[in-house]
Amino acid sequence: MAVLWLLLAGLPSFLVGVFAWVLIQHFLTTEIPSTLKHPVKLWFIHGMLLYVVTLGNILEKLRICAMPRFLQFLEGLMPINKDPNVLVTDLHFGTIPVRLLKPKKASSQPRRDRYQSLCSLLASETDSVVLMVGYRKLPGYHHPVLINDCQNASIYFLKNLASFGVDPSRVVLCGESIGGWAVAIVTQALTCIPSLPQIKAQILICPLVNFINFQLPSHQQNKNVPLLTRDFMFMCMCKYLVIDPSWKDAILTGSAIPLDKWKKYRKWLSYDNIPRRFWSQDPQPEILGPFNEAAYLETKHTWNAELSPLLADDKTIAQLPETFLVSCEHDILRDDALLYKKRLEDQGVPVSWYHVEDGFHGCLLLFDKKCFSFPCSMKLINAVISYIKSI
């Protein structure tokens, strides 16, 4: 009892100490672009995110709780905004939990389907059926579980569209960030199953499409810009792909890239494919570090199109549906969207592109957070809604 009391008594001091350390680190490393609106607000949000991530890392090192599970616990404490005009139904497609959202208002035509985290708003604003896939997450599950869950749920849904009142000619897949990565991979896979209804369009919002080239201009310009910094992105990547973090420098400098593979795929991966207006005034040369075979062996699975959809062959790319791509100027993944845009256009895929000049990674998630929302949040979501209505 005495030991427990001492621990509880020291907890406030510990939390304050961690907060002070995070605050100093945040002040020294975080970069807020001058063109962003409400910079203090973003600085505060990112500081709180760093604080909870740091607490999660401490709990993980103490073997009390894995960091991802700690973040999921905190996320579960946040209130959910319920739309009275949307009917929500929890189902299971086999063992995969899914959530179906559809407007309560009767529709004269079968509705579209959407896969999107902001599904309640999309359902009501676009008169669509929206399917959320409850894919299994870290820390208990790693690649390819997320992709398999999304793909299997999508196939089940596509085979049973009539029972959900969905028009098979108007199915759209949509995802943001890691969800955009999943949509890109699943859409490529579905093109190889001719017995399924064809996907009308895919919507990729700030997607990740390659795990190979980390020397793109956006990686140089936005590596310390909230809400997705290079360090946080790399930590999540290593956890999900089960890569030893000690290879960080080799991966970021390109030392894990064999010269023969770079020569083969440079035409798709190089920042030569990025419009020059996105380059830095003094861009760093795209030079691979001295080849490290051990680092390559640790990361060679990233050269598969099932992980890096940018590397899919021309035949697969050419079969993809029309695409709506969203990029944000101050996003470390901005250039991934630009590379994929060119890759699709080169194979004749119709692409609509919306670039948020004052946007940053994750701004979409803040669209309904009232005092923590940003003008770019609503601009982005309105662009997505307009596109869905247009098709």
TrEMBL record:
Q: What molecular functions are annotated in GO for this chain?
A: hydrolase activity
A UniProt-annotated Pfam family: Abhydrolase_3
Q: Boundaries of each Alpha/beta hydrolase fold-3 domain copy?
A: 115-247, 295-364
Where does this protein come from, organism-wise?
Cricetulus griseus
Chain segments annotated as transmembrane: 40-59
Q: What keywords is this UniProt entry annotated with?
A: Hydrolase, Membrane, Transmembrane, Transmembrane helix
Q: What is this protein called?
A: Arylacetamide deacetylase-like 4 isoform X3
Keyword Transmembrane helix recorded = yes
Q: Which InterPro entries match?
A: AB_hydrolase_3, AB_hydrolase_fold, GDXG_lipolytic_enzyme
Top-level taxon in the UniProt lineage: Eukaryota
Name the SUPFAM superfamilies on file. Answer: alpha/beta-Hydrolases
